[in-house]
Amino acid sequence: MRKLAKVEKLLLKEWGDLVDDIIYLDNAKKMRVRFKEPLDDAFLDIYISPLSDKVYAYHFQLLNGIMFRLDTYPGEKRAKGLPTYPVHFHSETQQNVISPPFPIKNHYLNDLHSFISYIFSTLIGERL
Question: Where are the domains positioned within the chain?
Fold first, then answer.
């Protein structure tokens, strides 16, 4: 829970004007964030392993099905050849697996900040 509390603090500090609601799921092992306009058709799910700061999954999805995910799941076969493995980025679809198009520091808070900054700069610019 301590890690998710740090995540919540970061979200509210950096993007509080866009956050509509934060819900803890699965006995507070995961977090779901819903957003205000212009991202009110999106949600962000966050999982961070209680055992390691380097094991996480951040899943941002629009209601139309377009999704972006940054995670460290080593079983993703499409990620094995990437220079950032096991860190990989799903761009728009589950099948499109690439190296993250933003800096990665292999720490859950830094990488979450980079992930959200990338997503928001890409999407919000299109919607304003």
Answer: 2-127
What is the residue type of 28? A
Contacts of 111 (CB under 8 A, 6+ apart): 56, 58, 70, 87, 104, 105
Per the structure block, which two tokens stand in for 72?
């460290």
**Segments of the chain assigned E as strands:** 19-25, 30-35, 42-48, 56-62, 67-71, 88-92, 97-98
Angle at 91 between CA 87 and CA 92, to 5 degrees: 150
Tell me how far CA of residue 87 lies from CA of 22, 24, 27, 48, 100, in angstroms.
25, 24, 26, 13, 8
pLDDT in tens, the chain (128 residues): 689 999 999 999 999 999 999 999 988 889 999 999 989 999 999 999 988 888 999 999 999 999 999 999 998 999 999 999 999 999 999 999 999 999 999 899 999 999 999 999 888 766 54
pTM, whole model, 2 decimals? Answer: 0.92
- DSSP-derived secondary structure letter, 13: H
Q: Give the residue from 19, 32, 42, 10 showing the smallest Cα distance to 110.
A: 10
